[in-house]
Amino acid sequence: MDAGLEKVVAAETVLSDVQGANGRLIIRGRDVEDLARDFSFEQTASLLWGGFFDGMPADLHPPLGVARVVAFARLAPDFKRIAALPETEALRAALSLMPDGDDLQTAIDLAATMAVATGAIARLKSGGAPLEPDATAPHDADLLRMIRGDAPTEVEARALGAYLVTVCDHGLNASTFVARCVASTRAGLGSAVIAGLSALKGPLHGGAPGPVLDMLDGIGSIGNAEHWIRDALDRGERLMGFGHRVYRTLDPRAGVLKSVVTGLPACHGRLALAQAIEGRILQRLAAEKPDRKLDTNAEYYTAILLEALGAPRGLFTCLFACGRVTGWIAHAREQLATGRLVRPAATYVGPLPAIAA
Ligand code: CMC
């Protein structure tokens, strides 16, 4: 029995390879560093979905733009009710309003709905009105505009795009695994994506970046770091943005996101403090857990990047989902193609019925 399933191989995939020992992430034959630099969100969706759908267009930009407009019209009557929920639950509710299906249009609608709902939730939570999508804009720029209400610069839009691409897929992580389980029952792509989002929300997975900022705020200054970190570890707390089930070295996505954030003008104070605190945390973790190599994971620099782009911290998991939706869909289709229901076994350790005398 392996409670965390870490030694269980449950799928063959052409989508991504997480190499824990050497800190390398390959996504459909490309290193994540190259993908984040060279690919837009739309190109990444095409790359991941290629071969899994009939009738893939050469360019996903036009249908995705149209789908954002359609999603806005579909969600508009329910925006206020949805946005009364906490952000990630609001996103899940918005996705539930979509008809389910297994085809390419469902996949495009899911990616579009994710972005439109994320933008509307951000606006309503800050007291504004949701902004209509611009079907002609790139997905990343439109998403950032719908969140903030002002047009992002090209550098900002590209930074969000690099983030969405960096987190698009990551092997058989918890949310991808549940998405594959749901897809294997033939429940539909929408159901698989909602299941993935539900798993992503937890702080051990995609819910960490908001708490990373809470931690940095709690530490406050480098002078307070030693004492704050020691107290947190003494209380048995986990330091958000550090450690990983697979990586035994730096998460390569952390390196990508750190270099993206370095190119943004708005965050130098926060970045400098975050780098200094990162150093202290790594020293402390090495001293406290000498047998377990704990390094910085993607969520640490996700938090700095998304904050610098003006996204509220309650929205960070929704933005993670806006990127990861492409990977969940590809994995769901890959699982479906196997034709095999996922159904592992459990060892029963409960009582046996009494034997009648
Ligand atoms: N802070 C302090 N101690 C830690 C941390 C941490 N961030 N991560 C692991 N440890 C300790 C843990 O307490 C355990 O110690 P001991 O053996 O003395 O009980 C040891 O290291 C091994 O931990 P584990 O529970 O076997 O590790 P895991 O593979 O189950 O955990 C993890 C992976 C990501 C859940 C964990 O490192 C963690 O909780 N990190 C903080 C939350 C976080 O940053 N989450 C985002 C993950 S990256 C995004 C993604 O890809 O989903």
Tell me what the structure shows.
The protein is mainly alpha-helical and 357 residues long. It folds into two domains: 32-205 and 317-338, Citrate Synthase, domain 1 (Orthogonal Bundle); 209-308, Cytochrome P450-Terp, domain 2 (Cytochrome p450-Terp, domain 2, Orthogonal Bundle), CATH 1.10.230. The protein contains 16 helices and three strands. The chain has helices at residues 32-38, 41-49, 61-75, 79-83, 87-96, 104-125, 139-148, 154-166, 174-184, 189-200, 209-219, 225-234, 252-262, 268-288, 298-308, 316-338, and strands spanning 16-19, 24-27, 30-31. The chain has a three-stranded antiparallel sheet with strand order 1-2-3. The two termini are 34 Å apart. The model has no long low-confidence stretch (mean pLDDT 96).
What's a concise summary of this model?
By secondary structure, this protein is mainly alpha-helical.
SS strand fraction: under 5%
Strand order of the largest sheet: 1-2-3
Strand tally, please?
Answer: 3
State the order of secondary-structure elements, H for helix, E for strand.
Answer: EEEHHHHHHHHHHHHHHHH
Helix content: 55-70%
**What general form does the structure show?**
globular
Q: Which second-level CATH architecture of the largest domain applies? A: Orthogonal Bundle
Low-confidence stretches: none
| Major sheet summary line | 3 strands, antiparallel
The DSSP helix count reads 16
CATH class descriptor name of the largest domain: Mainly Alpha
- Output the CATH homologous superfamily of the largest domain: Citrate Synthase, domain 1
Mean of pLDDT:
96
Which fold name corresponds to the CATH topology of the largest domain?
A: Citrate Synthase, domain 1
